[in-house]
């Protein structure tokens, strides 16, 4: 009887261990695949540019490039960042037979381009 109780306890411990691993995997997957926090802002990029101006005496251009994404992702990324960063003319671009989605700031110092496969 005592051997059966010990085996049952061992099986319960194994089951709980597997359950904990499964729950941890689910949590890690959810964290890894969640959408961005939405904290990107024109102010944060402007502050970075101001820091570089103070430190080095020149205003940097910021180029954010995505490569090999789907056309849907390219469009979505470009539109979303255009809104969050107050960029203009988001849309399909074409040059020398290559198409991509892109957007720029009014001053031209911040750009987002998403090249799709």
Strand order of the largest sheet: 1-4-3-2
Structural class based on helices, strands and sheet pairing: alpha+beta
Q: Considering DSSP H and I runs of 4 or more, what fraction of the residues is helical? A: 40-55%
Inertia-based shape? elongated
Unreliable stretches covering 5 or more consecutive residues:
none
Mean of all residue-level pLDDT scores = 84
Beta-strand percentage range: 25-35%
- Describe the oligomeric state of these chains in a short phrase: single chain
Using only C-alpha atoms, the radius of gyration works out to: 25 Å
Order of helices and strands: HHEHEEE
Task: Summarize the model shown.
This protein is an alpha+beta fold and 117 residues long. It is built from 3 helices and 4 strands.
What does this structure look like?
With 117 residues, this protein is α+β, with helices and mostly antiparallel strands. Helix content is 52%, strand content 26%. The chain contains 3 helices and 4 strands, in the order ααβαβββ. A 4-stranded mixed beta sheet has the order 1-4-3-2, with helices on one face.
Q: What's the layout of helices and strands?
A:
Elements: H1 2-33, H2 42-56, E1 62-69, H3 71-84, E2 88-95, E3 98-104, E4 110-116
Parallel strand pairs: 1-4
Antiparallel strand pairs: 2-3, 3-4
